[in-house]
Amino acid sequence: MKNVYFLSDAHLGSLAIPHGRMQERRLVRFLDSIKEKASAVFLLGDMFDFWYEYRYVVPKGYTRFLGKLSELTDMGVEVHFFTGNHDIWAYDYLEKECGVVLHKTPITTEIYGKVFFLAHGDGLGDPGKGFKVIRSIFHNSVCQCLFSALHPRWGMWFGLNWAKHSRLKRPDGEEPPYMGDDKEFLVQFTKKYIETHDNIDYFIYGHRHIELDIKVSKKARMMIIGDWINHFTYAVWDGDHMFLEEYVEGESRP
Fold this sequence. Notes:
single chain; 254 residues; alpha/beta; 31% helix
C-alpha cells in the first residue's frame, strides 16, 4: 500500500518571496522524493500566488513544478489540484497538459477505508463581509470574462501585485499564529459541519499557513497543513496512520 500526501500554499511566483526559485526547486525535490512511494498527491490550494489562464495564454514560469506534476501523473500517481483564493482561475490547462484532477470546491472522499473532507479552506466559516464581497467578485463569471479582456501583461501584473500587497501588509508577511478554537474560522466551521456529517474521519485544510492537528470529535481529526514558504510541511496517510511532517532537504521528520 502506497502513501497519500497532502500539501498546500506554496504561492509560487510571489513577488513577496525573495527566494522564489529556491522555493520551487525545494518543492520539486520533495515531489521527486515521494514519487515512488505515492499513490496520490493532494495539492490543497494556493500552489501559485496568482494563476490566470487566458484562452491561449498561461502564466510564464513554474516549468520545474509543472514538469514534475506531469511526471507524477505519467507514472500513474493521482494528482489532485484544488483551487485556492490565489489560483481560482485555473480552468483546463493543468488537466490537459499535466494530467491533474482539478477541484474547485471541497470534496468528501474515501481513502483506504477512511472518509476525508478536503478543502483549501477559504470561505469556510469566515463571517467577514469584505472577504465575502471580494470572493464573490473573484468567482463571478462576468467579472472573470471582463478580466480576460485585459492584455496578459497587465492582467498578470495586476494579479501578482495585488497578491504581493496582501502578503506584505501582514507582519513579516506571515499569517497570525493559532488564535484558539473560538477564533479560528476553520475550527468553528468543522465543529458545526460534523454535527450533520459524523461519518468523516479527517478534515484536511490549507489556507491558514499554520500547523494544527486537533481532535474535533471522538472520531474525527482536523489538520491545517502549514505551507511551503516558511514551514515546508505536509500530511501523509499510509492507510493506518496520519502524520504531519516537515520536509528537510533530502529527508522527512515528524
